[in-house]
Amino acid sequence: MNRLDKWLLRGWDSERETRWERTRAKGKLRYIFGVGLAFATGILMIRMFKSLVDTNTLEKIDLPFHLIQALVAGILFGVGKWISNERGYHAYKASKQNSPSNNGI
Length: 105
Hints:
Mean pLDDT: 84
Largest sheet: none
Shape: elongated
Strand content: under 5%
Structural class: mainly alpha
Number of helices: 4
Helix content: over 70%
Low-confidence stretches: none
Distance between the termini: 19 Å
Number of domains: 1
């Protein structure tokens, strides 16, 4: 097992495998937009809070620009999380198939 596989297997167990299988069954787009929207909301809230602290007003924030930027970043984050979870899931499945307990030993 190489270093990348070991890194991908961090935190994977049968419970996480089951949760990820349920998430996968709901669909890739639903996951990406759900995670992406949550991430985008967080980014937008942080930017608005920062603007409020810096200027004591929200008037100077360009909301449409920041909203679009946050949504794009959120979608990219969601895609990245999907890819990362898929790699970890497949590495975990492969490690279970290659384990001595599954080889009849």
